[in-house]
Amino acid sequence: MSALSRRVDGLPPLALYVHVPWCVRKCPYCDFNSHGVGHGADLPEADYLAALLQDLEAELPLVGGRELTSIFIGGGTPSLMSAGFYERLFDVLATRLSLASDIEVTLEANPGTLERGRFQGYRAAGINRLSLGVQSFQDGQLHALGRIHRGGDAIAAGDEARHAGFDNINLDLMHGLPGQTPALALDDLDLALSLSPEHLSWYQLTLEPNTEFHSRPPVLPEEEMLWEIQDLGHERLEAAGLVRYEISAYARPGMQSRHNLNYWRFGDYLGIGAGAHGKLSATDPQGELHIERRWKARQPEAYLRRSEDPRGFVAGRTEVEEEELPLEFAMNALRLVEGVSMADWEAHTGRPAATLEARLLPARKKGLLVEDGRRLQASPQGLLFLNELLVMIGEADAGTE
């Protein structure tokens, strides 16, 4: 691995991502690594747990004794797995890794897969943050999105999670849905707010390649209506005390997702499970930094077979080269409303802030950046047109070579 021409004061925080690839039914908008198995499927819990632990063991030499600050279990639908599955997983994690005393442990859950009483088991296993995939409270919208739950299921799941002792709950909610009006979008937000979530991820439906919706697109609201939904929704959430801190993330003070903040601040993370991605930094004896991205076998059956394969679970890896680093860093940091200080830009990219600043005048003139030479921070307009802003930053950085 080639070294990046900069030195760092220590390594970034370290997180762990665990992927559970199965779901009851693949949603037509979903481009994640998820595989529908139908209701009542007999999942290979024991085999998958054994593979995860073997996968983890192979990663441990890469992190030494670094402390783990957060764990995120995503999918797929991780709530298809039993509480016992996670209890056994966390028992091993606690013996093989150094866990922060206040570690954040998030589980994604689908309201349509939860048996009564399962939340108590998850909480007892050590999960302390729940992310409920609500998407909408309107039954018609849920049907159009291919979801397996109804709006009442989501409300019941939120109530049961509170009774189980969860005091850190995120709701995933979508807007810009087929046939959605501003009034319907606000109704969804009001129902979400009635559950008093600590965190809300509110993002627009997009038609991603390799999805059913991409090949057979539904009729979505016109652009003018989408802007109205975003403006009214943002006002409604902020008035309710949920502050926007990332493009599509709102939280009560102090309740931002630590795991996602680590991604956006260019922290490190291990990735275990089918198709999981990881990013790891290391320094050589000269103190130079190396960054590697690696990913695991994607198909669940192939991933399980890798437990008997001398190649292990890693399906591919790539080095982050010096010329790639500025744009990679900007793609993450500029998702944050606060952006990043120019001092942090220099520390993470090795690029002189003064040279970059001189080339960012077109972006500032277009109103895409906040008028503060000490920060690289998207304006509200820049957050709406982040891709355009990133292209301009990439071109500006290329001009510094």
UniProtKB/TrEMBL annotation:
Radical SAM core domain sequence ranges:
8-242
Primary residence: cytoplasm
Listed Pfam families: HemN_C, Radical_SAM
SMART domains the record matches: Elp3
For this record, the Gene Ontology CC terms, alphabetical, are:
cytoplasm
Q: Which PROSITE patterns match?
A: RADICAL_SAM
GO biological process: one example: porphyrin-containing compound biosynthetic process
Keywords, comma-separated and alphabetical? 4Fe-4S, Chaperone, Cytoplasm, Heme, Iron, Iron-sulfur, Metal-binding, Oxidoreductase, S-adenosyl-L-methionine
> Per its record, what are the GO molecular function terms?
4 iron, 4 sulfur cluster binding; coproporphyrinogen oxidase activity; metal ion binding
**InterPro entries in the record:** Coproporphyrinogen-III_oxidase, Elp3/MiaA/NifB-like_rSAM, HemN_C, HemW-like, rSAM, rSAM_sf
Superkingdom classification of source:
Bacteria
* Record Gene3D superfamilies: 3.30.750.200
Q: Which CDD domains match?
A: Radical_SAM (cd01335)
Subcellular localization, as worded in the UniProt entry: Cytoplasm
Per the record, the similarity remark reads: Belongs to the anaerobic coproporphyrinogen-III oxidase family. HemW subfamily.
What is its biological role?
Probably acts as a heme chaperone, transferring heme to an unknown acceptor. Binds one molecule of heme per monomer, possibly covalently. Binds 1 [4Fe-4S] cluster. The cluster is coordinated with 3 cysteines and an exchangeable S-adenosyl-L-methionine.
Q: What is this protein called?
A: Heme chaperone HemW
